[in-house]
Write a structure and sequence with these properties.
This protein has 118 residues and is mostly helical. It contains five helices and no strands.
Length: 118
C-alpha cells in the first residue's frame, strides 16, 4: 500500500484550518502545548520528533505519521535514526506497529526526497 504522505499533510492542513477557525481558543492552547512539548530541553527537538513518530506508529495515526515524518526531515533526522525509532515502536506495539512502521519509513523517504539536493 502506497500513500502520498506530502499530499496527506497538505490536505490535513486545510482541514485543520477549519478546526482552528471553529475552535480558536482550543487550537491556541493546543499550539501552545505543541510548542512547549517540542522545544529543546534535556531532549533536543529532533529527538522529540523521533519519539513523536514512534508514538504515531504505536497509536496508528496516519496524519500524525505525516506531520512528524515531515518535521523529522526538517530537523535533520537520518533514516537510520528513524529506523531505530521504528524499532522502539515495534517493540512497544508489536505486529500492528510493523504495518505503521513501514508506512512511517515510506513517509520519511518521500519528504526527504523533496529536500534540495536529494
Amino acid at each position: 500500500m502506497h500513500k502520498d504522505w506530502p499530499a496527506m499533510a497538505d490536505e490535513l492542513n486545510v482541514a485543520i484550518k477549519e478546526v482552528r477557525l471553529g475552535t480558536p481558543d482550543v487550537m491556541k492552547a493546543f499550539s501552545a502545548m505543541a510548542q512547549a512539548a517540542t522545544k529543546g530541553g534535556a531532549l533536543d527537538a529532533k529527538t522529540k520528533e523521533l519519539i513523536a513518530i514512534a508514538i504515531a506508529v504505536a497509536i496508528r495515526c496516519d496524519g500524525c505519521v505525516a506531520f512528524h515524518a515531515k518535521a523529522a526531515v526538517k530537523l535533520g533526522a537520518t533514516r537510520d535514526e528513524v529506523m531505530e525509532a521504528m524499532g522502539m515502536a515495534l517493540y512497544m506495539g508489536a505486529g500492528p506497529s510493523l504495518m505503521y512502521a513501514a508506512q512511517a519509513v515510506e513517509a520519511f523517504d518521500q519528504f526527504a526526497a523533496m529536500q534540495p539536493g536529494a
